[in-house]
Structures are given as structure tokens and as C-alpha cells.
């Protein structure tokens, strides 16, 4: 016991979650993000309304949950982050590197979106919202209502067609159904482009750094750094507020929206009588459901492995996976009611069909919904609540993403991380802040969209496909199930029947189908009607190549360092490393009793601690 006192202190410094609640809320916060609010409701409306919940639920069971459970189990079993955990299959260590690099790219632009939310949050502290009307920054195309361009009217017993100015000057009345409307923009749309972003004409025109967005970006990184200065010990407490309070705000917005005129029309478009069951015959609907589930649960980003690596060894990761996945999906459905009830009211007061005011992504979060909120009594209050909710949803996901990076550093340099955790965490935040400054220039939104289009797409799909192939087909699915049973206890063959079906066949096939579909239907990136220059698309391809090139590079390096002929080297790299297994000796049992001997203990830095010192990373 005394001989291992220093090892014990070091591992206690790495620590476990202080409580089960810290872990679950961190996982919920990581999985539940901006996409649950600004993408899922639109996809539901677009793909048949309530009927879309059928493929969505099936894809959760067939693709999302199996991958989620796999990654949680993997991280918890080895108590290692997304790179070091590939001791399970050294040939595929590049998959972990790809995950970490993609998470780095995403962390850069995701905090820019948080900066947008901060800017709008501060802009809400005004008696009159600055996007509530066409003020000095607006042009002639700005209007809160539809403007008639021309129509048919009756003049001296004859039907004529004339512009609207002629109609009004002669006190004529347009015939119903003959009116053509001018192309106009809501004040919120012009405010977003002209004031908030100061958007340039395209990626070619970088322009200046928008100073107030840069300050908001700095503030967002300061918040992230402050929450993570003690790692999971501090972030695990912060999420009690950042993960739970968005539900309070969603409930408030839903109750307020339900009391407005036109709310029922919006909800019917979302999931009511407008549902179209025939949409299920279209392959695009099933692809959208699978893609939304895949990205919504944050699988294959490395974050699930990193967060689960701090669990105690015998934690029930099976029930955790089901709870988090179900919570994530229920949140998406719930958020849709809050969004569409208020958009329905906006359509009512602007005398437009709901289909003309509904949008997704940036246009929903920073144009359509703010426009709807500006039409409510006490609009600054509702605007503040909405953007505060976006801020909290974004921060939760960002905490986990940065924790993925620091966990990776901790696995590679444990002693350095123990002594310099705060400087390293702050250094990561500062570096990513400077890398993100390109995204707060006048062309910043084009860069955000470009990174999202390439890095957050194929790279993750490729990593997920290789991850499940490597663990199930090379390491061995039955072997992996035995590892899980070491943590959660022996289960019946019937219990594992569903998971075997998914892991061995259904999930890999679905992932491959999504990947192939994405490649076949690839289209160059655009932002609205703005096309990207050829060099911009080339930069996007370079980013995704930089992310995935480490998969073959790491494999080649492992083969070169191995011993024997080429075939023997490949075979040895397809076997678990000598130091693969549970982190603590007391958890290894007979199956992994061979993992460490006295010579390898120091080399691999795996402590032989008594269980009285804790389990998992403790």
C-alpha cells in the first residue's frame, strides 16, 4: 500500500466523476445541442410531420443506440481517451486521431456560433429589439409584411392588370387570388446579414474582423476555460445548470407559444394533421432520419469515449446509454413544439403560410425565430430567454469537446497534465480562440459553413465505419461483449441478441449506406444563394483529407515498428497491445491478469493498485 502511495495520488488527481449525476448530465449536455432545436423540428416538418418519427425512432434503435453503447463501454472499460483506447487495435489508432482532429475543427467554429448567441443575448437588453423593425441599416427590400407588386382589378367594367401603385392611386381593389408580391426580407434577416455579421459578398472578400463578435468569441472561450479549469471536477458541477436550465426555458417558450393566435397552425404543420405517411416511401426521408440520429447523439467524435473513461469500472453503462439517447430524442420532439407554436403565430400575424416562415440552422436561430419573438409583448424578455437557451445548449457540447482534447493530452502526458492542467487547458482555449478569428471576419459565416460542410460530415462517418469494423470484426464482437460483461455482469444470450444483430450487420450496413449516399449526392458548399469559389471548395477537401489521412499514416507506422515479415507485422498490429485491459489491476480478473508485469508496469504507467484506492481512473 505504501509503495503505491504516489501512484494513488496521481490517479486520484486524474479523478472520476464526483457523482453519477455529473456524468449523466455531462453526457446529456454533450448529446443535446443546437441541432435538437434548429435542425430536428425542420426535418420533421419537411419529411412528413409526425410520420417522420417512425424512421427516426427506428434509426435510433438500429444505428444511434448501438454506436452510443459501444463507445460508452469502450471508454469505461479501458479508462482511456479516444486515441489511447486504440490499444485495443493498434492498427486503427489513426481512427482516434481523426476523431480528435475533427473535434478540434468543430470546437473552433462551434464557439463562434456560441459567440453569435452571446451577441444576440446582449442585443436583447434593449427596450425595443434592434431587429424588430426596418431601422437606419435597412434597405428598400426590408418589410415586416408582404408588399403587393401588381394584381388584377376591374376598371370601367373591364379586368386590367396593373402595378399596385396604379391600383391604389385610382382607388381600385385587387381581385382576390391575382396579387403578386414583391421579394422582401424581414427586418431580422437584414439585421443578421448587415449588422450582426456585416456579411461580405463571398469567401473571396474577407473584410475586417467584426470587433464585437471577436469580443463575444473571447468571452465564450473564457467561459469554457473557467468551467474546465479543474477538468471534470469543475465542469461536472457547471452542467447541473447548463444542462437542466434549457429545459426550463423550452417549457416557458412552449407555454407562451401555445397561448398565441396561430400556434395550432404551426404545431399542425410540425406534427399534426399535416402529417404525410406517404413520405415514408421516399429514401431521402430515411436518410435524413439516420443522419439526424447519428449527428445528434455525437457518436464517433471521441467525446463519448472521453467522458465515459472517467466512470467507475462497474458503472452500468448500458442503462446510461439508453437513458441519454432517449432523453436526447425526446428533447428534439419537445423543442419542436416550442419552435413551431411561435412560428405559427408569426405566420398568422404576417399573413403568410407557415411554410414561408419555417427554416432551419442559422436562418431559424438568428432570423425566423427572433423575428417571431419581436412580435410578442415584452419581446426583449422572450428574446433573452431564447438566446440564453442557445448559449447553454452550445456550452454543454463545447465543454465535452474541449474535455476530449484535454483527456487526450492527459493520456499521452499524464505527469505533465497533473502538474500543468490549468495552464494547458487555458493554452488550448487561447490557441483555438486565435484560430477562430477567421470566423468572425466579414466572411466568417462562409468559413463556419465550410468547416461544417466538410469536417463534420464524411470524416465522422468514415471514423464510425472503421470503429465498428475494427472492434466487432477484428478485435471480435463476442470478445467485446465479454469485456462489457466484466463491467455490468453476466447477461443471457437473449439479452445480447439485439446488440449482436446491430453490431455485426445492421449498424455497419446503415453507416456505409449513409456514407455512400453522402458521397454520391455531394454538392459544392453554398451559403444561401452564394456560391463558393473553387479554391474555397479545395480548402474544404484539404481539411477533410487532413482529418482522415492519419488513419493510413498511423497504420503504416505501427506496421513499420512491428517485428517479423509483412504478414506477421499486420497480424500483430491487429491484436490488442500488451497494455490493453482495465486500468486497475483489481478490475482485470483472470482474462487480463497477464497485462502488466513488473518490467512493463513502469513502461506503460498502469498502476497495480488495490481496489481500496477506487475504480476506473481513480
How does the SSE layout of this entry go?
Blueprint: H1 5-14, H2 20-31, H3 34-38, H4 40-46, H5 53-78, H6 93-123, E1 148-155, E2 158-163, H7 164-169, E3 180-181, H8 187-196, H9 211-227, H10 232-242, H11 245-258, H12 263-271, H13 283-296, H14 303-308, H15 317-349, H16 354-357, H17 362-374, H18 379-412, H19 414-435, H20 444-454, H21 458-488, H22 493-520, E4 526-527, E5 530-531, H23 534-548, H24 550-561, H25 566-573, H26 598-604
Antiparallel strand pairs: 1-2, 1-3, 4-5
Provide an overview of this structure.
By secondary structure, this protein is mostly helical. Helices cover 64% and strands 3% of the residues. The strands form 2 sheets. The protein has a 3-stranded antiparallel beta sheet with strand order 2-1-3. Strands 4-5 form a two-stranded antiparallel ribbon. Helix 6 (93-123) packs across helix 9 (211-227). Mean pLDDT is 88; it is low at 1-14 and 597-618.
Helix share, percent: 55-70%
Quote the distance from N terminus to C terminus. Answer: 15 Å
Helical/strand content category: mainly alpha
Mean pLDDT: 88
Strand order of the largest sheet: 2-1-3
**Annotation field: number of helices:** 26
Strand content: under 5%
Radius of gyration: 27 Å
Q: Report the strand count.
A: 5
Shape: elongated
The residue ranges in which pLDDT falls below 50 over 5 or more consecutive positions are: 1-14, 597-618
Report on the biggest sheet.
3 strands, antiparallel
